[in-house]
Design a protein that fits this description.
Blueprint (H helix, E strand, L loop, with lengths): L1 H12 L4 H16 L4 E4 L6 H16 L9 H6 L7 E4 L15 H4 L3 E6 L2 H14 L4 H6 L4 H4 L7 H17 L3 E5 H6 L1 H12 L5 H10 L2 H10 L34 H14 L19 H7 L1
Parallel strand pairs: 1-2, 1-3, 3-4
Helix pairs in contact: 1-2, 3-12, 11-12
């Protein structure tokens, strides 16, 4: 089955279309899931690079794995068995319509899962600028040429798709005891505490000093400077287009910034949609947030 997934991904990369581009990533990740211990799942533009860099620093401290690769899965796959193999995945293409978003439950069976959640308003605005300045896919570039207030409601990965994605993982987390939900916002406001929860769940043995140092290493200004200096060997870090300052991966380290990009009327429409459709336990629609799942009940109580 793993070979089938790999061949399918390779074939899809040869087809010049946006849909094939998304399917190639999906089949690639299915192949990698077969040998992963942990999957960190997020909708694109949920801030996973920031989290990934912190975690890469912890792996470097404990196992000597070069943090400049930012946890390249091919390296983890060949590492000693004591190294937790963590796969960062979007569980499919962000261009999917809401009705096409579904979790392949069988693929995630037998491995721990971390859902990295982020406010859908911030996700969609970040995605808009990503497609405008970093995407190499013409169809995705064209999608982001429309006004932002139209883009956020697009059928191809707009707010309805993001909400469905988050809700589906929340439902699955209630059915399984090995899914941890962490919010990007808590990595900003309580970085040490939230990184500790992630480190423990993955199975690392990180000291308090390691956690503090990893948080400092991934501090926004430091991370932005390292990206511009070419510190990271990973292709995911660096400008999407040479000479375009807006095309760097690290653009902003804020939460709630989407509101400044929308008119008051559009803000109200967006907030009303979240209140009606998004699971309230995420804390993005005016109630107490779910910081983590029952796996870390003590931490959840401490951080509310």
């Amino acid at each position: 089955m793993a070979l089938l997934h790999k061949v399918a991904a390779q074939l899809m990369r040869q087809i010049p279309s946006s849909k094939a581009f998304g399917l190639a990533g999906y089949w690639r990740d299915l192949d990698r899931l077969d040998s992963a211990d942990v999957a960190l799942v997020s909708f694109p533009k949920s801030g996973r690079t920031f989290v990934r860099v912190m975690l890469a620093r912890l792996y470097q401290k404990q196992f000597g794995i070069d943090e400049r690769e930012v946890l390249k899965f091919a390296t983890l796959r060949e590492a000693p068995l004591a190294v937790p193999r963590i796969l960062f995945t979007h569980n499919g293409d962000a261009m999917r319509r809401p009705g096409k978003i579904a979790i392949n439950r069988k693929a995630y069976r037998g491995r721990k899962v971390v859902l990295l959640a982020r406010h859908p308003g911030d996700i969609i605005v970040s995605r808009y600028y990503h497609l405008r300045h970093r995407s190499l896919d013409p169809a995705r570039q064209r999608l982001a040429q429309q006004p932002l207030e139209d883009f956020i409601w697009t059928k191809h990965g707009g707010i309805p798709s993001i909400v469905r994605f988050l809700n589906q993982w929340k439902v699955l987390s209630e059915q399984r005891g090995d899914i941890l939900i962490l919010r990007y916002e808590d990595f900003l406001s309580k970085p040490e505490l939230t990184l500790r929860a992630l480190s423990d769940f993955v199975g690392l043995k990180s000291s308090e000093a390691d956690i503090t140092e990893a948080v400092e290493f991934a501090r926004f200004d430091n991370l932005r400077q390292k990206e511009r200096e070419g510190y990271f060997s990973s292709g995911r870090m660096g400008p999407g287009r040479a000479g375009n300052q807006e095309s760097y991966k690290v653009r902003s380290g804020k939460s709630g910034g989407f509101r400044a990009k929308l008119s008051p009327d559009e803000q109200s429409r967006v907030e009303a949609y979240f209140a009606k459709h998004l699971d309230p336990s995420f804390g993005y629609s005016g109630c107490s947030p779910l910081i983590v799942t029952a796996v870390h009940r003590g931490l959840a109580a401490e951080t509310r």
